[in-house]
User: Fold these one by one.
Assistant:
Number 1:
Amino acid sequence: AAPDMDPEAECSVDIILVGSSEQSSTPSPEPRRDLIAYEVKGNQRAIEELCICCGSFQVRRQHPLFEGGMCSPCKDKFRDYFFLYDEDGYQSYCCICCAGQTLLICENPDCTRCYCFECVDTLVGPGTSGKVQAMSNWVCFLCLPSPRNGLLQRRRKWRERLKAFYDQDPESPLEMYKTVPVWKREPVRVLSLFGDIRKELTGLGFLESVSGSGKLKYLDDVTNVVRRDVEEWGPFDLVYGCTPPLRQPCDHPPGWYLFQFHRVLQYARPRPSGSQPFFWMFVDNLMLTEDDRVIATRFLETDPVTILDTCGRAVRNAVHVWSNIPAMRSRHSAQVPPEELAQLAQDRQRARAAALGPATLVKKCFLPLREYFKYFQPNSLPL
Ligand SMILES: [Zn+2]
Ligand SMILES: [Zn+2]
Ligand SMILES: [Zn+2]
């Protein structure tokens, strides 16, 4: 799960936040961190008064998963990176500090967490990372029965804390659903409109092709669909919709897909009282007009992110995505000028990459759903 930071990496899909020039703050590793153990054991300082991610005394928040504080930059970093996953299905960064180059991976098959050497050596004890590496079947600090390991103490009700951490953050306007413990996770039930995401979800391990666990209902036309239909087919955990892939003859203006998605989404939503996780995603293949996008943001009550398919420096394809899946707003980076996207939308008519359809660009965005739904070993389909 080592993050690929190489800017010259050949081809990648990246997520940027539209309408924000905010730079992600990345504090350099602090030498003071070595002093955490000394401050707690020698100076009798409470660990809640120290940032367990960097050793700073400027504590702003409590760490949601483990006892200890967090300074402001480390809190922002955690918010932006905690729900990012790599293709292998593991989290991209350390679940304590949300950084780290080399990561220890939990070998509990249902766990996706990683830990950096520095966190483990600083908080659990010097030399721990080496011992963990030498172990054949290591289970992590959130999965181990014992809540305390050195200075690292798992919080009680850390899932509630994680939800509260995101809900308190003004940068994450939509309420987050509490993550689901492994033994309670059920196969996901999906309603897929105008574009079929079965292949993507099967490849990611959310649907099982053999036994048919997990279900997906695909509709390419919803003109005559009424509330009763959706209630009969449902309940659903994820509603996906998109503007149609290029070169697919479409019978309606692009805005129609947005309105129909919003209409059907209302039918599929669980009753407001429930705390059952319910996710949705609408993807625009750069077909909506600027006015349509403003309407989408108002209807869906969240700003879109732009996901780029880049090859070296060149942007080959892009989509706008509105969703309530955690981490959709993560990975802030440079903005793409609207003119460039407009140009891309035109050029794309000729480009081959664009013909793949919008779902291929957003595949990775489904990975945080691993915290909520049953996971099947994906069969050989590559991501
Ligand atoms: Zn810090
Ligand atoms: Zn770490
Ligand atoms: Zn684990």
Number 2:
Amino acid sequence: MERYSRITNKNQREIVLLKAKPCAWGKCRFCDYIDDNSENIPEMIRLNREVLSNVTGEFGVLEVIDSASCFELPEETLWDIKKVIQKCGIKKLFFESHWMYRRRLDEMREYFGIPIVYKIGVETFDNDFRENYLNKHADFKEPEEVAAYFDSPCLMVGIKGQTREMIARDIKILKNNFKLGTINVYTDNTTDVKKDPELIQWFAKEYGWLVEDPAVEVLFENTDFGVGD
Ligand code: SF4
């Protein structure tokens, strides 16, 4: 499993995939990456420390992800991230959090003392598909509610059951309401949520221009950021 990488095209930054405690929700229908969660705190701290030792600060920007929210990282790991920020001159952090922690985002900003770009797994702004099929447990109704807390939504495209209209609306919302965003093209995993190859083909053709958009990162594979397996 790769846990350190450098993103050198858009929004240049280093990225680390750390281990975290179990996701507090843990019930999204499409998610099997919570398998990377752990309850072995000392082992997690050790591994995270090792991964963080790769950070050089060459871009002054660091993204920290884990298979849960940043709030599920062990306290000692947060402290280790803080030390890396100071040692390597990191000026900006990217973090990811579930909707349920929306009122706690500033806690991390205060703790680290540098700007944090918050990503959120929205998957889709279609409330019915997100809540009743994907079981995301993010009960906002309007994109503006998300934009009030988060900087950068992550969308998923190409799931069986999604429609072209849903995707087109999601991308329009992303471009109109947010400065940054990520689009994950869905790939099959161990869950019963399946990809729709025809829809993915349509998306790649219709939205090929997004690859050139500096504000949107399109991941055709989960490992396109260079971390994961
Ligand atoms: S919130 Fe994220 S980590 Fe937790 S179950 Fe959902 S997709 Fe998986």
